[in-house]
Specification:
283 residues; alpha/beta; 9 helices; 34% helix; globular
């Protein structure tokens, strides 16, 4: 297992957040104002699961305490955690585009127990052996781009992390998933992001050169909002993730640096990087 380097900034990172936001002129942090700035970050520092040989992130990212690369799963974990807390009973979840199963493995490594009634892995190519090792036991092998695609059941939550950018018609795919989410349920997702003018230009370019299973759709915050409206969903949460990411950088040993990146992403969700969101199906 890679050795995790220590940093004196870890001791002040969590404590300094509230002071930093106050001096910067922001309101007092609360669950309604930038909740991601209050979410538990400390469990990343010594998380054995993400530093195991099986967990699919670069060794350089595993060598630091707060890898920015892990924020994709960190956002997913906390948004799912909030759903479970709100409902008060075990969740039924469909994860679209599971690949080798990092999301569920990360979720189970978190500090809060999240009770699950069912977690269905959905993918066009199912890596069953790897997924079984990661804790998955319910599988639905199907191509979401098939016009006849339909989930096998209704769910309270759908997870779509870094899948929609691989689809030529992501809005239509999201609409298919939304049909199977129960009223009041949530769709949680994320993908790379660019400002709107750059996103349109970039999409035209990548569609000419994309390799099989590569990125063919490019997103901006404005497009995320349009997607929610197109699918009849309410956009409840939207945030960028970071200012800059450099795997293995000594800066990523600092909780304060991680929080600063989260603050930057919250203020500038269209900054080139990644964006995460939660859309709710009306009751």
């Amino acid at each position: 297992m890679p050795r995790v380097r220590q940093s004196p900034c870890n001791e002040i990172g969590e404590r300094s957040l509230t002071e930093f936001s106050r001096h910067a002129g922001f309101p007092d942090l609360s669950d309604r104002f930038l909740p991601q700035l209050r979410w538990n970050l400390a469990f990343l520092a010594e998380n054995k699961t993400v530093r195991s040989k099986r967990f699919g992130i670069p060794a350089e990212a595993k060598s630091v305490r707060y890898p920015i690369r892990l924020l994709r799963y960190w956002f997913g974990y906390h948004l799912i955690r909030q759903e479970a807390k709100s409902l008060g009973y075990p969740l039924e979840v469909a994860e679209i585009g599971v690949h080798s199963g990092q999301m569920l493995e990360f979720l189970r490594s978190g500090p809060d127990r999240i009770d699950l009634a069912k977690w269905t892995a959905v993918d066009a190519v199912m890596l069953r052996e790897k997924l079984l090792k990661a804790g998955y036991n319910d599988f639905f092998e199907a191509n979401i781009e098939d016009p006849l695609f339909d989930l096998p059941d209704d769910y309270q939550v759908a997870v779509l992390l870094h899948i929609l950018e691989h689809l030529f018609e992501p809005e239509s795919a999201l609409q298919k998933i939304a049909r199977r989410i129960r009223p009041g349920g949530a769709l949680i997702g994320g993908f790379p992001v660019l400002p709107q003018p750059l996103a349109k230009l970039r999409q035209r370019r990548v569609r000419k050169t994309a390799a099989p299973m590569g990125h063919v759709s490019v997103f901006s915050p404005a497009r995320v909002k349009r997607m929610a409206k197109f699918c009849g969903l309410q956009l409840e949460f939207l945030s960028g993730a970071f200012l800059v990411r450099s795997k293995g950088s000594p800066l990523e040993n600092s909780a304060l640096w991680a929080r600063f990146n989260l603050l930057w992403g919250a203020i500038f969700p269209g900054w080139p990087g990644e964006i995460y969101w939660l859309m709710r199906k009306p009751t």
